[in-house]
Amino acid sequence: MAVDSKPAPINFTSQVTKLIERVDPNFRVTTQQTQKQESSSSDTPIESIVQGRKLSRTYYYHFDANVSASAKAVFENAVNVYNQTGIVKLVPGNATTRQNEITFFVYSKQMSSGNSNGTTTMIESGHGGPQITQQTGWNAYTANHAQAGLNVYYPSAAIRKSVAIHELGHALGLDHSRDRHSVMYPVDQGNTSLSTGDIGALKSIYDTGDNQ
Fold this sequence. Notes:
Elements: E1 2-4, H1 14-23, H2 27-37, E2 58-63, H3 69-83, E3 89-92, E4 100-107, E5 123-129, E6 132-135, E7 141-151, H4 155-158, H5 161-172, H6 196-206
Parallel strand pairs: 1-5, 2-3, 2-4, 4-7
Antiparallel strand pairs: 5-7, 6-7
Helix pairs in contact: 3-5
């Protein structure tokens, strides 16, 4: 079972919760804290570091040198999915310190075999997230220098459009959703279309931001 490495903050069924807790023992605590902060049960949650930030909708993206052609292809597919919303604008290139950027990367991480008691094996398919830099006062700015990565140790599970869309979603500020139809559900469901909740969360992040 392919799962994102970031602990899911929403309460799921007990089966999924137990599986994710095997990856991150703090999952239940994180879930309880995030539930208190949720303002809407319909929209996909927003990463806490992005909440309340005024971010430009434009991002410049580039690939690390070791990203293979196949990984680049799924990342580019993910970029197209988000660009088609018209909410964000992702363009190839290098950003300045004051501009939003996304670095696409790959890494290789083997998961432990775990117990031989017939339980489902968890495979980490990738990870990603935002990193906010901010300057206040004269020439103030807020920028997101984000990353999105795929775990190429398991290419058949990780080098997938659905996984790349999920990790790019984290980079743009989306957090895990409890909706199985959302691209931000923490266990890969093969979703390649943004749900209504995903779109709503993106709008809440970027509609109040700079439109450039």
